[in-house]
Design goal:
With 323 residues, the protein is of the alpha+beta class. It has helices spanning 25-41, 59-64, 117-130, 204-222, 231-236, 283-292; strands at residues 6-15, 19-20, 85-88, 96-97, 103-110, 139-148, 151-157, 181-190, 193-194, 197-198, 242-251, 254-257, 262-265, 268-277, 305-310, 317-320. The chain has 6 helices and 16 strands. The strands form 5 sheets. The chain has a 5-stranded antiparallel β-sheet. It has a 5-stranded antiparallel β-sheet with strand order 11-14-8-15-16, covered by helices on one side. β12 and β13 (262-265) form a beta hairpin. The model has no long low-confidence stretch (mean pLDDT 88).
Length: 323
């Protein structure tokens, strides 16, 4: 597996008034994030993107459209690369926030999105002015942290002059020693398609294909270094040496796309998967998936996984997050 250079930031927002939020904040935050980002970086706010003369050099286009030569697309004739960012909303059951609370949103950047932190600071400030929920409750960006070799480091604080670091390259995720089994918790809905159909019953092969496909696409467009051997093929050959027990259910949620003027269904699987057998070779794949997510709609925060693993002899387990 090749590495994918990336940056990871945490944005801490404070509600200035009491605000009620939907059960999954990813949809609302993603919509606000897109609107605010376009307001910050677009040179001609009245211009439609397809006819804009500066489209090829536009930061908004690089991050949200990710157009490539169809010959290099993920499939023949497809001219869209994977989104070069992952937006992770607060993973909390809270439905109400008050002044003094913190709403923390993480943003992972890769490829053409690397180095845009200054724009993101302005974006989250603009997002706060646009307001959250139907009542447009205002938010204030209080601080920003970057994941560095030494851990989370503050790079911006409300009222400070400028950024202490304009760009911080994140360290690679730690690869765990899985022991004899691994439990994969689907922290946000996992949305997969196989042969054009949404996957509602997950088996070993489908899960391995999702791991390999996500990473092979990211490597192809944003990876560095030389590929050694057939990593994807080696991963798929594990299917006969693994047993998977899936304890999952389908979770549906709906979002309204203002850009497309339509409602969108973005359901996925939630619950957990338990893998036993030759789980050791899965460790690097699962470690990277814990940070970069799996499946479709990762830009909304879908497909986040956490790991629990251990050995049968003493039942000791250890939880490994994606960061």
């Amino acid at each position: 597996m090749r590495s994918v250079p990336h940056e990871l930031y945490q944005f801490h927002l404070e509600p200035l008034e009491a605000v009620r939020v939907p059960p999954y904040l990813g949809s609302a935050l993603r919509g606000l994030f897109g609107r605010a980002f376009r307001r910050v970086v677009c040179a001609l706010r009245q211009e439609r993107c397809p006819t804009c003369l500066v489209r090829d050099t536009c930061t908004y286009q690089r991050v949200f459209e990710s157009r490539v030569d169809p010959a290099r697309g993920p499939r023949p004739g497809v001219d869209v690369a994977p989104h070069p960012y992952v937006l992770v909303p607060p993973l909390s059951d809270r439905l109400e926030y008050r002044p003094g609370d913190r709403i923390t949103c993480q943003v992972l950047l890769m490829g053409p999105a690397l180095g845009i932190l200054p724009y993101l600071v302005y974006t989250f400030q603009e997002l706060g002015r646009l307001g959250l929920s139907r009542d447009r409750k205002p938010l204030a960006l209080r601080s920003v942290e970057a994941l560095a070799e030494t851990g989370w480091t503050e790079v911006f604080r409300d009222g400070a002059e400028g950024l202490s670091e304009v760009r911080t390259v994140a360290p690679a995720p730690l690869v765990p020693d899985l022991g004899e089994w691994v439990r994969v918790r689907l922290a946000t809905p996992l949305r997969l398609k196989r042969r054009g159909r949404l996957v509602r019953d997950l088996d070993v092969e489908t899960f391995l294909v999702s791991l390999g496909r996500r990473w092979s696409h990211l490597e192809r467009f944003y990876g560095q270094g030389e590929e050694e051997g057939d990593a994807f093929g080696d991963l798929l050959r594990l299917r006969d040496r693994l047993d998977l027990a899936a304890r999952t259910r389908w979770h549906d949620w709906t979002r309204y796309s203002s850009r497309q003027s339509t409602k969108m269904q973005l359901g996925g699987l939630v619950g957990e998967l338990e893998l036993r057998g030759d789980v050791g070779p899965l460790a690097p794949w699962l470690a990277w998936a814990g940070r970069f997510h799996l499946g479709k709609a990762t830009s909304f925060g879908l497909g986040k996984i956490d790991l629990e693993h251990g050995a049968d002899d003493n039942q000791q387990t250890r939880v490994t997050g994606g960061f």
